[in-house]
Amino acid sequence: MLSRIWMLLAAVLIAAPAAAADQTAGCGGEIPCAVAGGEYRIALPAGWQGGPAVMFLHGYGSSGAKVIANAGLVKAFTARGYAVIAPSGLPWRQGKPADWSVRDGWNTYPRNDLAFLRAVLEDAAANVGVDPDRLLLSGFSRGGSMVWEVACLAPGFAAAYAAVSGGFWLPMTQECKGPVQLLHIHGFADTVVPLEGRAIPGSEAGIVQGDIWQGLQLWRRQNSCPSNAAGHEAADGVWRKRWECRSGGLELILHQGGHGLPKGWSAMALDWFEGLER
């Protein structure tokens, strides 16, 4: 009987650290983590002992819960040892879809998202050991626009930034606060966020998406990049340009599709991110 008790005790002690990691201090997976101003979801790799993370900002009208429910997206990062942090935006006005505080001349958004994202990162670092110095901030569509905003307003927030299908809106800023490592991924045939920008039909305040090319020109100035790209690649419907910059770095990936996350984008982003550390 005594030996059975010791065996049970040993099993409990061995399982305890894994259980604690799975629960993420009372949240994780489908259970939201609450911080000042809102909430986020988080998914951890198997055997997580702390380490790098991808913070992914959802598109307009979506949520952190929907990001974490996207098993393919999450697995692409956790399989390579990254925690996935998925904050949730807020409705830009009562009864409206969730959004981010992108500067676009429309000032009804109720939260300081930069302060919120900092609170999310601090909470994830304190509770599960996310390394703030190894954070990749990524996002899609309006979330991609928020990636550009954070990179511009707080370049030291993340180690690098990877935006997909979203950039600056008008009135476009003319100067950012420092150089960054930025990867931008966009569909050549995107009609929702066209590369050349567009006015949003029927918008209440004449909201206009900025020209991605003009935004990239700003980043070239900010990162002290030459006008001409240092590297060009084209294969399998994907075109890449890379600039050798004196401060920070800049790379553009165009794919032949429309407004969406292209196949293999997560591997491209992580390969680029990990290449920065070498």
From TrEMBL:
The keyword Disulfide bond does not apply. It comes from the Bacteria. It is found in: Secreted. Residues 1-20 form the signal peptide. The keyword Signal applies. Keywords: Carbohydrate metabolism, Hydrolase, Polysaccharide degradation, Secreted, Signal, Xylan degradation. Its main location: secreted. PANTHER family: FERULOYL ESTERASE C-RELATED, PTHR38050. This is Polyhydroxybutyrate depolymerase.
